Amino acid sequence: MSDDKTLRPSATFPQNVLDEIHRAADQGIYEIRGFGAKRSLPTFDDLVFLGASMSRYPLEGYREKCATDVVMGTRYAKKPIELKIPITIAGMSFGALGANAKEALGRAATAMGTSTTTGDGGMTEEERQSSKTLVYQVLPSRYGLNPDDVRRADALEVVVGQGAKPGGGGMLLGHKITERVAEMRDLPQEIDQRSACRHPDWTGPDDLEIKIQELREITDWEIPIYVKVGATRVSYDVALAVKSGADVIVVDGMQGGTAATQDVFIEHVGIPTLPAVRMAVEALQELDMHRKVQLIVSGGIRSGADAAKALAMGADAVSLGSATMVAMGCNRNVYIEDYEALGTAPGYCHHCHTGRCPVGITTQDADLEERLQPEQGARWLRNYLTTMVLEIQTLARACGKTHVLNLEPEDLTALTIEAAAMAKVPLAGTDWIPGNNK
Amino acid sequence: MTAFDLNSDSVRALNQHLHESPSGKLSVTNPGGRHCIACGINAAVEVSIDGHVGYYCAGMNKNAQITIAGNAGPGVAENIMSGSVRVKGNASQYAGASGQGGTLIIEGDASARCGISMKGVDIVVAGSVGHMSGFMAQKGRLIICGDAGNSLGDSIYEACIYVRGNVGELGADCIEKEMTAEHTENLKDLLASTGIDANAEEFRRYGSARKLYNFNIDHADDY
Predict the structure, then answer these.
(1) Domain ranges of chain A
(2) Residue of chain B nearest A184, judged by CA positions
(3) How many angstroms separate the CA atoms of B75 and A117, rounded?
(4) What are the contacts of A51-57 at 24+ separation with CB within 8 A?
(5) Overall average pLDDT of the A109-137 stretch
(6) Domain A36-328+372-421 has CATH 3.40.50.2300
(7) Which of A147, A187, A202 sits opposite B60 (nearest CB)?
């Protein structure tokens, strides 16, 4: 017979911890998985907007103009990027994603008047052709880095780190290395392809400044240079990126996704996007570079509300990765048997690393990839992005703003002490900002 | 011959010229250790640089033949795609990093991480190289006529490393391999084509043990 005492669970060793220890004992290796942090973190949900009232004048929804256009790269580039919406598509590699998914991202971004971004492994022809505005990543691995692609890119993004794994490299497991992926990366098929954690030809901000100078020379100072960092020591990193000559800084919070990273890394390294935005904006303001060097924020942005709050805190745009995949069918309730074959279910899948994506996004398997046709994927993503833009405009109009970049911290209040401290906006119903001694 | 004097002309003007109207031969004088000289060329031109250069000289070179009559700073010929770059003096760190093709010849010594992440380039160093050279080298050949520092070829993939002198210590998963007659013949041809005077028979060959290509818990100690 069992009773409450004999079935008493341990707070130190709850079932999920027991399961992980058993798994580690069986397999002798840490868990590698895709998607992003699954733990509960402070998010933009902990902030709300203070809509217009007696002292604020709202704009009429659907009638009065609320502009959404943003310009990236106004500091040095001869040809800054003009985007119709303050939402960009983040870098995701061909290899981690299939060619159809990459094409769908490009088509949707083009239709929405925004940019998409390459990833580790280089630029595919489908991606270039489908993307009117394409940001080309310069990554530590340098897989597929080609000066011809540098020259036909609309911007370059030097990736120092990403939110899911700041300080870590990547690993594309062997079963996703098809002949085409292997050829693009100059490595044999079916071996685990390690992406380096640091660049091969520069160390530190002084070197980076010269590296950026080289990229500008190669592109004749025409296109913007972005620098992307995973959110950790954001204040220093943003200041150093400015010093290094970046036109645009991308700060990726720890909710940012990945195709294959150690679970311990995803869940235990970096800081959430919420404080990262505030730290980045403060760093830019201290240097008098806010709005002169543009700030893109990514990592767990899911909705127009998230985006609007990031903009209100001072970001110039947000970038989406995981959410775009969800829009294209990731974790959708279809092909149930294929989720089950992976030992998971719709709503729980983080098996990007296996290459057996049930909905054909993170796979190189031809049969699975057929499940995501570029036209359909692009349509879903357009619908989703359109919804987000409408949501941002709705919130901005409610705060009386004729442009979404006019949203400001004063429009926000926090629902939790943690969010108030991290975002440095007052706790709702008070004028208290924890940690603010003024 | 077109001439640029970097005491009076800017690096920007030089590179713009090399990108917009490259042809024939071009000389550069008074480089003065400036950075990013002659980078991003995409044409079969001959560029002679008379003096020392700073970071990333000849970066991402395609097709051009570039000669540096002096020493080169970090990242010379980084990500070279084709053509050739010759350094008549010594080269600093990361020489030929992630190079995908073409040839880099260093007549003196090269510092640490020579050929790091190389992806198809041939690098010939007449002198010695520093530590971590050939780190994560994927493809291509790294020829070291002198000695190699510690951690040579750490985490190497399918690149080939030839060393004539002493090797301090091999990096993870890098082993000495048999030097066959075919390897010797290939090396002889490469040395001859680069004008480096060394006897191919005196070299040893190093490459990947391929134990780390797919994770195996029983090889964890090798990392």
Answers:
(1) 36-328+372-421
(2) B119
(3) 26
(4) A51/A398, A51/A399, A52/A398, A52/A399, A52/A400, A56/A399, A56/A400, A57/A400
(5) 95
(6) no
(7) A147
pLDDT at residue B98, as a whole number: 97
Q: Is A2 on the interface with B (CB under 8 A)?
A: no
Length of chain A: 438
Q: A308-320 pLDDT, tens per residue?
A: 999 999 999 999 9
| Per-residue pLDDT, B107 | 98
Strand ranges inside A161-246, DSSP E: 170-172, 193-195, 225-230
Q: Which residues of B146-171 are buried (b: 16+ CB within 10 A; e: fewer)?
A: bbbbebbbbbbbbbbbbbbeebeebb
SS3 A240: helix
Question: Using alpha carbons only, how large is chain A's radius of gyration in Å?
Answer: 22
Instruction: Please check whether residue A214 touches B, CB under 8 A.
Output: yes
Q: What is the pTM for the complete model shown?
A: 0.95
CA distance A94 to A160: 19
Chain A residues with beta carbon closer than 8 angstroms to that of B12: 217, 221
* ipTM, 2 dp: 0.96
Gap from B32 CA to chain A (nearest CA, Å): 16
Q: Do B213 and A210 touch (CB under 8 A)?
A: no
Contact A231, A254 (CB under 8 A): yes
- Asked if B211 contacts B156 with a C-beta cutoff of 8 angstroms, the reply is no
pLDDT digits (tens, 9 = 90+) for A32-68: 888 899 999 999 999 999 999 898 899 998 889 999 9
What average pLDDT does the segment B36-49 reach?
Answer: 98
Locate tokens 């011809």: which residue? Answer: A148
Q: How far is CA A18 from the centre of its chain?
A: 32
CB atoms within 10 A of CB A436: 12
CA distances from A30 to A37, A92, A111, A263, B38 (A): 16, 23, 41, 7, 46
A96 vs A298: which has the higher pLDDT: A298
Separation between Cα atoms, residue B203 and residue A191, nearest integer Å: 29
Q: Are strands B119-125 and A317-320 parallel, antiparallel or unpaired?
A: unpaired
Tell me how far apart the alpha carbons of residues B109 and A275 are, in angstroms, rounded to a whole number.
Answer: 48
Interatomic CA distance for residues A163 and B187, integer angstroms: 45
Please report the sign of the dihedral spanned by the C-alpha atoms of residue A365, residue A367, residue A371, residue A374. positive
Question: Token pair of A376, please?
Answer: 């359909």
Looking at the predicted structure, is the pLDDT value of residue B171 above 70? yes
Burial of A66 from C-beta contacts in 10 A (0-12 / 13-18 / 19+): buried
pLDDT digit string, tens, across residues A350-381: 999 899 999 999 999 999 999 999 999 999 99
Residue A226 CA to residue A116 CA, distance in Å, equals: 13
Q: What type of residue sits at position A276?
A: A
Q: What is the CATH number of domain B48-222?
A: 2.160.20.60
